[in-house]
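Subject: Pectinesterase catalytic domain-containing protein

B.,
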Amino acid sequence: MSNTNSTVSQSSILTVGKNASLYDFNTINAAVTHARQYCSKTNRVVIKIASGTYNEQVDLCNNPGIDLIGEGMDTTILSYPSTYPNAPIYTTGQGYFSGLTFSAASGSNSYGLHYENGSTRISGTTVFRNCKFSSPHNAIGCGLGANSTLSLSSCVLQGTGGGAPLYLHNAAYANSPNQVFEMFDCVLYGKNSSSNESVLIDDAAKFYGVANSTAQLRFSNNRMISSTKVIFRESDTTRYPYIPVSNKNITLNPSNTGNTTRALNYNEGWKNGQAYVIKSEQPVYNASYYLYSVPMENADKYNITLTAVNIPGLASILSDCSIHSTSANGFVIKDTNPNGTNFGMEIAYTASLKG
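Prediction pasted inline below.
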């Protein structure tokens, strides 16, 4: 039911509330249907939604020029069971949303927000501010697309079942540049289980063997509660607890800092390092081998692999060296080579965050 008097027929601001005598419309979809008749991406319509629970599914895929503003994430709630597109809000394109909760009421494959832009290739930035997303599956299911950005700030993501609060992937379609996902100052509640993750990321381009599908991820000052794991998948069997630097399809922006999940901080999931030690000064000899200490902050949180151990100008002794131990301050190299004890050694290593 809605009022259709002349004051709202072409209005740039529409109101929605349970009391039809006080608001232009009493359902969100009625307001969206009305706005579609005259809005555009440059002539936008703002729909202001009063407090209450709205049992609706809103489809703004290829958003025609509509923004939704609630009175607060704790009071303005969209709740809907899981039917395709499996979320109370489904959107792509240019749009702005704030002060709302999107709750998937049921469904093993449901999302609070479903953002899927791979095949549609709709450009634009979709922004969520001060919103909450909850679902028994993934709070947000995000499929990035060419020349598009999904941006979240000061939001809450809650996975009430076994799924990660955030699931995202790059486009599974070739020639899809400029894909961006950004999340600032958000809180993610995962299931309190060591087997579950806060963030699940798929390299869909690698899964399906397509070229030129590049996405950049920007995470800053986010808190992960209960579950603090990241899983990055390049295939059904290739999984990492961080985003590997060798992956060229999905990369972390250098601004990624301040996240309680270390693998989302820039260069925290994978490190490349070099060191130089002097055998005559630093080794501790123990029977048939030498030990050399290499400083590295939080080394005990990483799997460290030696990639080069050279006596400069003479030879590589990599095959004689291994990681003896790690600590919060560094790691120790074990050297079983009996020669060159008065020489310095050049060391190179890689370190990947432990799962």
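Residues 1-6 have pLDDT under 50 and may be disordered.

T.
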